[in-house]
Design brief:
- There is one protein chain.
- This protein is α+β, with helices and mostly antiparallel strands.
- A four-stranded mixed β-sheet has the order 7-4-9-8, sandwiched between helices.
- The longest helix has 13 residues.
- The protein is globular.
């Protein structure tokens, strides 16, 4: 292992799956630190996730309101979902956009990757920007309770300022795609 950490053993404690997709595996490792201390470290492995920021035009976004069971509340979010086995993040972005909103995009471009839980997982969130949208039919699965909503960027900014947007992926994607921030020469809308 890097930086002198040594894994002495690994035990899988739990696995959560749906068909071929493994959503989460929980592991407990026995480690030895570079200073010789032995310790147990619990971490999880989870499928990567995509978040899609769909632009109808420079000022309007396609968002969803979705019920989130662990919080027992409806939240406003950008379309998102897990990368399925043998699927690329780009394919997931296109699939999730169409399934959750009904929109198909002429152009879907990768904006950024980040790790949401660096002390407990290697999971990556892939952020995409979608443009050239054409409306179609949604394809919600049996677990999704979703309502599509068109939101002006200014209204979204106000909702964030009022603490009405709580989804971390949506907040990060907003920052990356809607604030004018430059990322490797690519400008975000503002």
């Amino acid at each position: 292992m890097a930086r002198g950490w040594k894994r002495l053993s690994r035990k899988k404690v739990y696995e959560a799956r749906d068909g071929d997709t493994v959503y989460m595996e929980l592991f407990q490792d026995e480690l030895q630190t570079p200073k010789g201390k032995k310790m147990r470290y619990t971490h999880y492995s989870s499928s990567d996730v995509v978040v899609v920021v769909p632009f109808l035009d420079e000022k309007r976004l396609v968002m969803i309101r979705q019920y989130r069971y662990p919080l027992d509340k409806v939240m406003i979010e950008f379309p998102a979902g897990h990368v399925e086995k043998s699927e690329s993040p780009l394919a997931t972005a296109r699939r999730e956009l169409a399934e959750e909103t009904g929109y198909r995009a002429e152009k879907v471009e990768h904006v950024y990757d980040y790790h949401p839980s660096v002390s407990k997982s290697r999971q990556t969130v892939h952020v995409y920007r979608a443009t050239g949208l054409k409306n179609g039919k949604t394809d919600h699965d049996g677990t999704e309770d979703i309502r599509v909503e068109i939101v002006n960027i200014g209204k979204l900014e106000k909702m964030i300022a009022e603490r009405k947007v709580e989804n971390a992926g949506t907040l990060v994607a907003y920052l990356l795609c809607c604030t004018g921030m430059k990322i490797n020469g690519k400008g975000a809308s503002k």
